[in-house]
Amino acid sequence: MTMSLGPYASFIVASYAAVALVVAILIGWVMLDYRSQTQRLRELEQRGITRRSGRSATEPR
Length: 61
Description:
Blueprint: H1 9-46
């Protein structure tokens, strides 16, 4: 199944590619931030500072 995008095909394809790139970057950023925050929580717990929720940073949700 081929689709003709007309004279604006390059703009449409470039737009979708740009959005896909931005979404991939945001997903990567969130993953890195999650790791960073989890590591910070572990460090605080090792120093004796506990969370009000009582859960450990290493416990699964």
